[in-house]
């Protein structure tokens, strides 16, 4: 899978951001800092203030931004003194990521920013730094990871009352989809206005989209991003989510990337295709005679051993585990096979340069930096520890007993105890992530659901 996708902003903006901003008439720049959940936090700055911040490095964000749970509340810190002092991090814009912000009106741009301590050390609770740390492991071995995300999502009607289930939006024919239409071109055309807007926004932001299809669920679509380097691809996933939500809203709909938004329909995934090349670009997963290399076998072995132990990186929410069930268009195992979608790890058809493994476990709700980092780190450990992959699965792999955690609570317990991954990703990240996710789990478990009211209220 040779690299096609490059960070197009690098050559355009990296050398002279001032000229780029002037050329595009930018009067406001949004500095984006992805948090633990992949929510984009940060600051919006007038262009002059942004350019000044590039010079004096006086752009700050409270460190508590990385401790915000998905409901907006602070999860706090295990260090009470730190929590109450809430020291600043220094935001350093990555000018190579400058791009137009097409969904927010004219004259606006996006740029991703990284968080640092005041003494210049990376703030290692930051998901962008976590992914960089894993990529550095690869660089030290003379490897480069090539990844390609496939992102599923639902278009839905407006849902102002969260107690009511989601419904399909009204399409161009004036009717809402009521049944499945997988790969149906006519069904895809029903959403042409929002799809065209998404493509226009992607083109303006220089985000190279690949294939678009109608997936299994009513109003469910899938977009493929062109394969390339891991960090720019993770950035692109979050940009895609942002302007897809904007495009849908402007067309009178919602776009949701929940893992399981509709109980009776298929869940939404973020499948990750991964291959490794050397510094010269040579494929390392297939030999000259097109056979799988020993390294490829070890990489899959690492995924099989460690993915079940670090599932919160791929299934980060309580809702995520509603998706990972047999026969629900999602893998419920960590088996591997050639071109078998009932397996958690699939080796797609293709020649030597396209030899790759697809991790089908991550949900569309996962933080792309952490899902990619976790996948690559599991494979790396497999190669380092020379782990063997299992025998290839055949037929219906849903019948094979699963070793995956079935609940968020179990997943967090196993994640906390995974020493090899914890050592490589570091305590700053692990403690912060566990804190946020534990608080979210506690908040969810305090909620009485409609199912409980429906079945228990008048019967127990």
Main attributes?
alpha+beta; eight-stranded mixed sheet; 460 residues
Outline the structure in words:
With 460 residues, this protein is of the alpha+beta class. The protein has two domains: 10-125, Ubiquitin-like (UB roll) (Roll), CATH 3.10.20; 134-427, Glutamine synthetase/guanido kinase, catalytic domain (Creatine Kinase, Chain A, domain 2). It has 15 helices and 14 strands. The chain has helices at residues 8-13, 17-23, 47-56, 80-85, 127-140, 185-189, 192-204, 230-250, 294-306, 320-323, 368-384, 408-416, 419-425, 427-445, 450-456; strands at 28-34, 40-46, 60-62, 88-93, 99-100, 108-116, 143-156, 209-214, 220-225, 254-256, 270-278, 336-338, 345-347, 357-359. Strands 7, 8, 9, 10, 11, 12, 13 and 14 form an eight-stranded mixed β-sheet that branches. Strands 1, 2, 3, 4, 5 and 6 form a six-stranded mixed β-sheet that branches. A hairpin with a 5-residue loop joins β8 (209-214) and β9. The radius of gyration is 22 Å and the shape is globular. The relative contact order is 0.13. Mean pLDDT is 92; it is low at 5-13.
The CATH topology assignment of the largest domain is: Creatine Kinase, Chain A, domain 2
> Which series of helices and strands comes N to C?
HHEEHEHEEEHEHHEEHEEHHEEEHHHHH
Q: Which CATH-level-2 architecture of the largest domain? A: 2-Layer Sandwich
Q: How many strands, what sense, and barrel or not for the largest sheet?
A: 8 strands, mixed
Report the span from N to C terminus: 57 Å
Quote the beta fraction: 15-25%
The whole-number mean of residue pLDDT values reads 92
The level 1 CATH classification of the largest domain is Alpha Beta
Number of helices: 15
- Please count the beta strands (DSSP E, at least 2 residues each): 14
At the fourth CATH level, what is the homologous superfamily of the largest domain? Glutamine synthetase/guanido kinase, catalytic domain
What would you call the structural class?
alpha+beta
Helicity range: 25-40%
Radius of gyration over C-alpha positions, nearest whole angstrom:
22 Å
């Amino acid at each position: 899978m040779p690299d096609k996708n490059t960070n197009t902003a690098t050559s355009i903006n990296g050398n002279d951001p001032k000229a780029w901003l002037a050329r595009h008439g930018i009067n406001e720049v949004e500095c984006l800092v992805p948090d633990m959940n992949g929510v984009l936090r940060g600051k919006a700055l007038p262009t002059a203030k942004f350019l000044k911040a590039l010079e004096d490095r006086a752009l700050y964000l409270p460190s508590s931004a990385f401790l915000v749970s998905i409901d907006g509340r602070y999860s706090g810190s295990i260090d009470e003194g730190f929590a109450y002092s809430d020291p600043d991090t220094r935001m350093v814009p990555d000018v190579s990521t400058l791009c137009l912000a097409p969904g927010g009106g004219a004259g606006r741009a996006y740029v991703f920013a990284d968080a640092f301590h005041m003494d210049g050390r990376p703030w290692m609770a930051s998901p962008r730094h976590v992914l960089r740390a894993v990529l550095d492991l690869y660089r030290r071995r003379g490897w480069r990871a090539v990844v390609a995300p496939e992102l599923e999502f639902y278009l839905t009607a407006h849902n102002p009352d969260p107690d009511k289930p989601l419904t399909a939006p009204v399409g161009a024919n004036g009717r809402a989809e009521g049944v499945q239409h997988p790969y149906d071109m006519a069904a895809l055309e029903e959403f042409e206005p929002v799809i065209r807007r998404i493509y226009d926004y992607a083109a303006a932001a220089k985000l190279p989209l690949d294939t678009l299809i109608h997936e299994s669920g009513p109003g469910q679509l899938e977009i493929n991003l062109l394969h390339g380097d891991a960090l720019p691809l993770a950035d692109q996933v979050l940009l895609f989510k942002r302007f897809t939500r904007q495009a849908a809203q402007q067309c009178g709909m919602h776009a949701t990337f929940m893992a399981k938004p509709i109980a009776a329909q298929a869940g939404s995934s973020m499948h990750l295709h991964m291959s490794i090349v050397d510094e010269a670009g040579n494929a390392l997963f297939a030999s000259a005679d097109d056979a799988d290399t020993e390294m490829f076998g070890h990489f899959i072995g690492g995924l099989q051993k460690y993915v079940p132990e670090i599932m919160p990186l791929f299934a980060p929410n309580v809702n995520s585990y509603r998706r990972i069930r047999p026969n629900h268009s999602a893998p419920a195992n960590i088996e591997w096979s050639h071109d078998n979608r009932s397996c958690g790890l699939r080796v797609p058809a293709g020649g030597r340069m396209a030899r790759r493994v697809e991790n089908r476990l991550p949900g569309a709700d996962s933080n792309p930096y952490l899902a990619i980092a976790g996948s690559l780190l599991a494979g790396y450990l497999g190669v380092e520890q020379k782990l063997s992959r299992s025998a290839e699965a055949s037929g219906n792999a849903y019948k094979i007993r699963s070793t995956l955690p079935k609940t968020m609570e179990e997943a967090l317990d196993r994640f906390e105890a995974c020493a090899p991954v914890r050592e490589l990703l570091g305590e700053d990240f692990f403690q912060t992530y566990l804190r946020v996710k534990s608080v979210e789990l506690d908040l969810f478990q305090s909620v009485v659901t409609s199912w409980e009211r429906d079945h228990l209220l008048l019967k127990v």
